[in-house]
Amino acid sequence: MTPNLQIEYRPIDALLPYARNPRTHSPAQIAKIAASIVEFGWTQPILVDGDNGIIAGHGRLAAARTLELVEVPVIELGHLSPAQKRAYVIADNRLALEAGWDDELLALELAELSEAGYDLVLTGFDDDELAKMLADLGDDGGEATEQEADPEAGDVVPEPPKHPISRPGDVWQLGPHRLICGDASDPVAIATLLQASRQETVSYLDLLRAMRRYCGDYADDARQLWRRLVFNLLITNVDDHLQNLGFVYAGQQRWRLAPAFDLNPFPHRDRVSRTPLNAKAGRIRSVQMLLDHAGAFEHTPESARQVLKQVVVALSAWRDVASSREIGMPKAQQAHLAPAFEHEQTIEAKCD
Crossing angle for the helix pair 204-214 and 218-234, nearest 10 degrees? Predict the structure, then answer.
């Protein structure tokens, strides 16, 4: 007998996708699911077993990740046997394919929603499908649109959607091409588009090898990079994509590490870098980890500790800077940011 089902919210990172899930989800479909969640909310919780393994809802989980959600609603189906769970992974998707459409009623519904000003893309159909269904509804012989009457009138620019999926700074991978949502005159947008993707496949030591080959003053740039890693750790800047490391041309086919940019403290995130230090050590988690590898960045133990001390001294005045006349950050906002600057790694760095 099926037990009473209960919906509860669980951390998104605790859920485990089924490795042999035969159903695939394209980036376009995931974007549509994300738009549906934004518009309608969670109408279908993710189904999991007693160990947080996903039985149904892999597409919803992927959409939730694109929306950067922390928790998602789930229903635990702990009563299913291992064989039943594997079978339902298939049945949940296959049974939905048995349904059909009443094309005429569907077109009527879509037409009335369109007349009410509703964004039909949120129904899950793409523009071509919508155009065909609405055209099949019949030509009422009415007046031609402005564009039909005057082909030279240009495109009609639609109003932006109420809940856009793509936001400034988002980069989309379109096969071999990359597209950014941004201003073509913005150098940061261009740098983001041309540099590494957010899914880092290289480490900081891989970057050092490239810097050794191309930088005009490799040793100085390597030491500056290590200082930046210490700074990122101590302000909890876990958004440390390699695309946020720029280089400027120094002439004679040589480059230099550009000044730091896009440094953001995250007060309520785990203090773990997004980019790994190297393949063996993994992501940066502590001051000691950085000190252990300082030699790879052209530091001696003494010079590394001196840099660490300088960064700690600079950051110890963060509240004074925040309260300064130039910034004027309210006390409540300082309290919100405090966990990013005041934590166990800061204490360890001061004691080192």
Answer: 150
**For the chain, percent helix, then strand, then coil, each to nearest 5?**
45, 10, 40
pTM exceeds cut of 0.85 = no
Q: How far apart are CA 230 and CA 236, in angstroms?
A: 10
Q: If residue 290 lies in a helix (H) or strand (E), which one and from where to where?
A: helix 287-292
**Tens of pLDDT along 82-125?**
999 899 888 888 887 777 878 888 888 888 888 888 888 788 88
Mind listing the domains of the chain with CATH numbers? 7-96 (3.90.1530.10), 101-139 (no CATH), 166-195 (no CATH), 204-351 (1.10.1070.20)
Torsion of CA 280, 284, 290, 296, to 10 degrees: 50
* pLDDT of residue 239 exceeding 70: yes
166 in Cβ contact with 172 (< 8 Å):
yes
From residue 102, give the alpha-carbon distance in Å to each of 105, 106, 122, 204, 291.
Answer: 6, 6, 19, 56, 67
Angstrom CA distances, 197 to 62, 68, 192, 233, stand at 18, 17, 8, 21
120 with 130: CB under 8 angstroms? yes
